[in-house]
Amino acid sequence: MTSRPEDVAAELRRDIDTIRANKTLSTEAKKARIAQAYIAAKGEQQQRLAAITTEKATRKRTLERRLFSAPTPGPDGEASYRQALDRAAQATTEAERAALLERAELVGDEPLARAVAFVAFAHAEQAVVNLWLDTRPSLDGAANELWQASHGASAATGDAAWHLHYGIDPPAEFDGAGDFTISQIAQQEEANA
User: How many separate domains does the chain show?
Assistant: First the structure.
């Protein structure tokens, strides 16, 4: 698999140019070979998109664990954190969560502070999350990365933006035909070969 999505499109353009320049092929044979190259490139792009999507999801889970896992390992720490999560979820407004975070910070209740930050993060309450990060500068980079992945522009557009940027349009030979029709042309050539 080609490593970068833009390389797939560039390789397809080169392949199509080579096929078009081949004087030994008939117009129909050229069209069939171009169809095969196009379908193969689309498949590679789909594999690449799946790999990128998996990489992003894995990275997001890693960041979530780093930021919001139970601060004290073990059964007691996890039970305490679950209780803190329940308590943080009961705060229904951003102001209530900010006040709860301030109290947790004041008394040194790290499980509650982390739980409030988790709930605020889920509600996209940047002010509360930043309040939590003010005393945890070592987490700032991870939090910013997770924020962008969860709430940033790329999270909102997702796969659609990827397709607009790296998508492969059908070659001119197919005059607006869809991928199904192009795939049939490619398969007919394979059957005739």
Answer: 1
Three-state secondary structure call for residue 95: helix
Q: pLDDT tens digits, residue range 108-160? A: 999 999 999 999 999 999 999 999 999 999 999 999 999 998 887 665 556 56
Distance CA 57, CA 64 (A): 10
Q: Positive or negative CA dihedral for 173, 176, 179, 184?
A: negative
List pLDDT tens digits, range 3-31: 677 788 889 999 999 999 999 999 999 99
Domain that holds residue 137: 5-192
Which residues, at least 6 apart from 155, have a Cβ–Cβ distance to it below 8 Å? 148, 149
H-only helix segments in 22-168: 27-68, 75-90, 94-107, 110-122, 126-133, 140-151, 153-166
Task: Identify whether the C-beta of residue 81 lies closer than 8 Å to the C-beta of residue 111.
Answer: yes
- What predicted TM-score, i.e. pTM, was given to this entire model? 0.72
With contact defined as beta carbons under 8 Å apart, do 149 and 121 qualify?
no
Under a CB-based contact definition with an 8 Å cutoff, are residues 185 and 31 in contact?
yes
**Separation CA 129–CA 140 (nearest Å):** 10
Q: How many CB atoms lie within 10 A of CB 64?
A: 16
